[in-house]
Amino acid sequence: MLASLVFIVVTAACAAATGMGPRADAPDVPPLATVYKSCKNKGDVALTFDDGPYDYLEDISKALVAAGGHGTFFFNGNNFRCIYNMADKVKYAHAHGHMIGSHTYAHKDLTTLTSDQIHNEMWLVEQALQRIIGVTPAFMRPPYGLYNDLVRQVSDVRNQSLVIWDFDSGDSTGSSVANSEALYAAVASKHPNNVLAVNHETSETTAYQVLPYAIPKLKAAGYKLVTVAECLGLPAYQHVGTPGTPDPNTWKC
After folding, report:
1. Is residue 112 part of a domain?
2. What integer pLDDT is reported at residue 16 of this predicted model?
3. CATH number at residue 205
4. Catalytic residue (choose from 70, 98, 103, 200)
5. Are 128 and 92 contacting, i.e. CB atoms less than 8 angstroms apart?
6. How far apart are CA 70 and CA 64, in angstroms?
7. Could you tell me if residue 188 is inside a domain?
8. Mean pLDDT in each 10-residue stretch from start to end of the chain (253 residues)?
9. Which N-terminal stretch is annotated as signal sequence (predicted)?
10. Is residue 104 part of a domain?
């Protein structure tokens, strides 16, 4: 019996010394939010639109709805427009079945911020969406697609997953209409199982020229136009409640 006890004690000591066993002084590793870079369901195309709410939202919505589909709008709080000044656009998108996600408040590179600053960038746009349409988003797209472990830690605390993309229309980098159309034609021709596409609501060419070309191409290839939540099989929102009452003292950027 004594020999057995000695063996157990020595074995435990060796395990701790070599890192093979648990250490009481080991720091807890904060959980990281999931990062989605593609859809899951075969035949789905999730067209997403960043940087709004902006002037072309209704035109984008009409193009999607006319094709029997819906899209996903990742809204900023105060980027091209103040979200409170565009509350009617936000309500329009939500009322027409599109998914609303967070693109943070001021479109800052989150990887350059502290934990508190990241929380603030996320909270301010969440608060605006709660006030305007009564929802708390379950998904956040980090500006520029940039994130690190700290961003993922904060997102996990806020119960939001990150959404990137596997197809870029190029409308934010100066691509011509012809180039963007060629990119959509190429992806439709290659016919991957599914597509998670990034576009920008602030691009006039996307609203008026690229989408009227891209949507029929994608549908002809057999794809279904869905939201990010639909293509992942997950809820779009953490919470759905009652919108607030506009208040000029607080509903401002």
Report:
1. yes
2. 41
3. 3.20.20.370
4. 200
5. no
6. 6
7. yes
8. 38 41 61 98 97 98 98 98 98 98 98 98 98 98 98 98 98 93 97 98 96 98 98 98 97 97
9. 1-16
10. yes
* CB of 151 closer than 8 Å to CB of 117: no
Q: Which residues contact 217 (CB under 8 A, 6 or more apart)?
A: 184, 185, 188
Token output for 201: 């609501």
Q: Identify the pLDDT of residue 191.
A: 97
pTM: 0.89
Domain count within the chain: 1
Contacts of 252 (CB under 8 A, 6+ apart): 82, 84
Residue range(s) defining the domain that contains residue 159: 35-240
Query: Considering 50, 98, 103, 171, which one is annotated as catalytic?
Result: 50
Q: Given its phi and psi angles, is residue 230 left (phi above 0), alpha (psi -120 to 50 degrees) or beta?
A: alpha
- 134: in domain: yes
Give burial (CB, 10 Å; 0-12/13-18/19+) of 203.
buried
Q: Is 200 a catalytic residue?
A: yes
Phi and psi (nearest 5°) for 105? -75, -60
